[in-house]
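Review box. Two proteins, two foldings.
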Amino acid sequence: MPVSDARQRLLDLVAAYVADHGLSQLSLRDLAAAVGTSHRMLNYHFGSRAGLLAAIVEGMEAQQRVALDEIARTATAPSELLTRQWAGLTQASVLPFVRLFFEVASHAFHGAAGTEAFLDGLTAPWLDVARDIATRLDLHVADAEVLLGIAVVRGLLFEVLATGDVVAPTAAFERFIVMWEATRSAA
């Protein structure tokens, strides 16, 4: 089996395990045992526990971009697109991966082995998807607007994790959408 296939198989196994059982403070050895491999194999393919977590988050981020693109195909307005995306991101089954996102970001900020590419792919892929969606919807959205939206979503997701409350951050996000639409109308 080629290395990339073995890496992807291990990544899929660990991601499925994390989705079903959470991550807690599992060591690389614990994760390896849980999916029937060795910590050495995980180290070989991902460089470290932080590298493995970064790969899981990168995969989840890619899935979320695909989901956003799918929502855009049926949404009737940008506000519906954003509201549906937020609803998906705040589902109980997705929040462990959101928590993992912030954990990996912290590791990457500190230069942890295996996270080197994480920061490079943090925002640019979202800008690309937003540009494609905006073109299909015949919207003219500046990168700065998209970046602001990304920052608001990430900040409010942080608030959800910190407080356990989804209601207040959802209300804040809805308010952000109203303000964004008002700004676009005035322009």
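Next protein.
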Amino acid sequence: MGTRSARLTATVVEAAQPERSPYFIWDTSTNGFGIRVSPSGVKSWIVQYRVGKGRNAKERRVTIAKVTALKLAAARERAHQYIGKAAFAEDLAQELADAQKGQFTVNDAIDLWIKEASSINRRTGAPRRPENVKLDVDRLDIHVRPLLGDKPLSAVTKADIELLRDAVTSGKTAVIMKTRKHGVRKARGGAGTATRAVRVLSSVFAYAEDHELVDKNPCRGVRLQPSRKCERYLTKEEAKRLGEVLNARDEAKKSPTGVAVVRMLILTGARRREITDLKWSEVDFDQGFLRLEQSKTGKSIRPLSQAALDFLRRQPKLSSIWVFPSATLQSPYQGIEKVWREVRRDAGLDDVRLHDLRHSFASFGISAGLSLPVIGALLGHKDVSTTQRYAHLANDSARQAANELGTLVTNALGPAGE
């Protein structure tokens, strides 16, 4: 069996052609990671490692998944998991094999997913934010474990998942938990909670399916209530009220950093963390772009308006890497939620969320005649379908333009004959 070496990229993997005998291409940037190309044309991600150190260390070669089932970044991250555990004489492949032999329960699968896969985006291989991981773990602990935790993993059916969905929707898993010395958290359940709980459980089963712990993911095909879209768009009059409140706070020097963050959100349509966590190194003043190291969709390049660039130039450059730093200058600004509650109250916009500033940015752009692809580029959408949520706004603008054009043509032609 032949072996070759190359820095694995999507292009290299796609270009690998089948030959009469199977062969490996080993990644030069991750020792032990590679692909196997079979004569039939099937390509598989593989990882090779030694468990522990010394002459007696056992060598293992494991198939991670087919190339069609897992993207390069995610496969490379999975290989790092195998290699990292092997350095401490732990064998992830053996753990998975042992799980198959025994009565591996849903609780066991959840524990394994939390330990090995929860911190990584399965589709892209990018790290997930710790707070999002915690939310998913909480959903599993509160809503899934009590109902399915002790059930053998291989025995879970689609009907079981549907019963879980219905139980969470009806509030059967609702609990009140003590969080701090005098604090409580209420987990109420409901349709939205059921949807999110089943989706994270589906990730657990997808990980188990990748490692052949189950034949198929029972969550696949379960009907879920669509996520509730609470999109709210500022009108021009509401935007004017918001501007007046921001100006008043500027004059009073009240929460200047928080006010600046709000301005940048409405000027760019960026997500909250993309602005609160913005670094000076990510601002390209020469070309007029934000070059974000991390966003919801990975690295992202966003065009900036002249107004946004001018506003950024006016921000004080303190001894911090952050454009909007905390009081200590050692971390990004943390107080935006409190400031926004005060701002929207004063502006009479109590039902407007911070994220609605992003929707409003898109709305203003469409009203100005920008196309959906351009709006998607400004918002940093990688998937065209994501921008389609604004299609109705584009239709409204087109209808208004048609009416105005119709009036012009009618005036030019004169009154119609009877």
